[in-house]
Amino acid sequence: MMRSVLLQIAAVTAMNVKSIPQRFWLSLSTVVAVALVVMVLLTFLAMAHGFQRTLASSGADDVAVILRGGSQSEINSTVSREQVQLIEDAPGIARSASGKPLVSSELYLVVDGIKRSSGTKANLPLRGIGLEGAAVRRGITIIEGRMFAPGSNEIVVGKGLTSEFAGFDLGATVTFGTTRWQVVGVFSADGSVFESEIWADLPVVQSLFNRNNFFQTVRVRLENPGAIERLRSYVENDPRLKLDVKSEAVYFAEQASRTTDLIQRLGWPLAIAMALGAVAGALNTMYSSVAARSVEIATLRAIGFGGFPAFVGTLIESLMLALIGGLIGAVATLLAFDGLTTSTLGASFTQVVFSFKLTPSLVAQGVVLALIVGLVGGVFPAVRAARMPIAAGLHA
Amino acid sequence: MNDWMLIGKNLFRKKLRAALMLLSILIAFTIFGVLAAFHKAFTAGEDVAAADRLVTVNKINFTQPLPIAYFNRARGVEGVKQVTHLNWFGGYYQDPRNFLIVMAVEPETYMDVYGADLEFPAGMRRDFITNRTGALVGKAMADRWGWKVGDRVPISSNIFSQKNGSHSWDMTIVGIFDNRTPRLDTNFMVFQYDYFDETRSFGKDMIGWMTIKTTSSSLNDRVAKTVDQMFANSSYETSTDTEKAFNKAFAAQFGNIALIVVLVVGAAFATILMIVGNTMVMAVRERTREIGVLKTLGFPGGRILRLVLGESLLLALLGGLAGIAVATAATMALSRSLANFVPGMAVTPGIVLIAVLLMLGLGVLTGLIPALNAMRLKITTALGRS
Fold first, then answer.
1. A311 and A339 both lie in a single domain
2. What's the predicted TM-score (pTM) here?
3. Is some CB atom of chain A closer than 8 A to the CB atom of B61?
4. Are residues A178 and B159, on separate chains, in Cβ contact within 8 Å?
């Protein structure tokens, strides 16, 4: 019994699939519609994921970022020299081989660069750091040239920054106002947001930008991720330290959330609206498919086929068209957008360079959406196929 | 029975099919309407910029400060009608998440420079100039927080602190101003620079940027060049641009939003073009026999063409106009939640006009092939087919 139902389903499905060329253009329009829906969804998701991944890989659990209370991002914060000295004596901070606490006080300024893709001015971060800056962070590697020499007008630039913005090639001279700087090195930072930055020696930046004895953030390497609690209670118990202590991972996750939220909040509603349109297209295609085969369906029913195989056969046709569309959409997104590098204004008011990144789980979300379109677009026509009166079908 | 009735009957002969096509067209135009409104609001800075205003910022970047002395020097340049200076405050109300756009300004010149866009009645003008801790609040911001004239509100800064260590400044609302053009957003406030400068713990005698009003927009280039040359080779070099160019460059920092909008709308339209076009071809082919009968009755080919085209145009207009209506409602709902990011989102008459043109284009494109087929159909073929 079971076997015969399966055989009937196979026969009806084969018949449906073989007759697709008769409705070639209509079936193709369903496939293309679903492909475009999936492409729009996956492009937005790949954008959101790529941005999030860049910021997530920037933050370490065992590095703490210390900012002025309530300032929320590095660009707004100010920290005094006295506060930096108090932090150096705080508990929970890892020490270098020579016994010095791993504390990096930094300046975070915004300078203009020219975006290669549009030729317009864009905000780029110039970070004044000491040599401790690279020691506190992990994964910083000079891939071309060398590190800046302390006390000199030299800068090193992240590799993301040189690819997206003009004028920062190795050996180039860069002018910020009346000051001139030489690019002596390019660094990588495991794909993190630091690759979108320009680094220079802290005292030089302080003096050339009239910010003597002025710091914006302090980064410290913790003994272990749990040590942040000891550091935090030390800061909270000292009235001279009105500062926020966050792990770097938490800090960058907060920075990422606004932009990724916005991209996802645009992407999903758009994809769902387009999916509704595609459902309408799929319904049209499948109703016509059922109508075009009414004689065949009625004939099969007359020779003893049940209604259920007619139902399943129609549904499978619809799901197949949607699946093909979904896969084409995913492949097209992969070819057109995956790995595409771009930049946008991040929460620190400076450009963040990131790449669109498609993952298997995102592709799965796209294929599921495609199958939902196929399911909804197929189920009602399939019911009609199953219920079609034999006599009426034969006279059509 | 006139032609319109025939068109209507033909369109709705298969109600489900017509409804599905209407739905897909409706959705495409909803997407178009919402995205066009978003894009328009996003680039509004360009449209509302005054032709006779220039923005002078530090050449390194607009977040870098300028010395206050520049204010008086710029006022002396020929072709300059008025100059004001502004300083970004990084404001918030009570909680850092309640972000506010707040600027410290020079009161009198501020109202001179922006008086063409914002309404400052004489009484408000006087109160703002004479009240050291006074602040002017835009209508949108006052409505949002329920503030009234005379209210004393503590406004905090995520950048600056007072000499006493506090991050919060007490301000008295001395006026609530409205805009002269509805496109201009009023979700911001301004307060006296002198009060700010005397109390802040660092950055004294520095300003954020200057806005210059020229005597005529034809002098813009000359004024911009003169100002920048005046400060060249100093430790604070400047870069002066028209307000429009400055706003446009700032919007471009977020990325190529226009390209994204065009791609998504293009994808939505490609989808319905295929769906509706194919369905129309099929629907007309089903009626081959009837078209043969109409021709036998003496309907000329041109009239048949008009009947089929009329049907596809009616379909596009019905679905499209409903879509624009949905987009208008959706935009109103969205404009509140996106107020901080893209203020003033709305489906404008210009957007509706483009939408109607798109509807006409869609109607002609989807109807043309079946209409031509129907027109050219030979009676013998039509009636011979079964």
1. yes
2. 0.88
3. yes
4. no
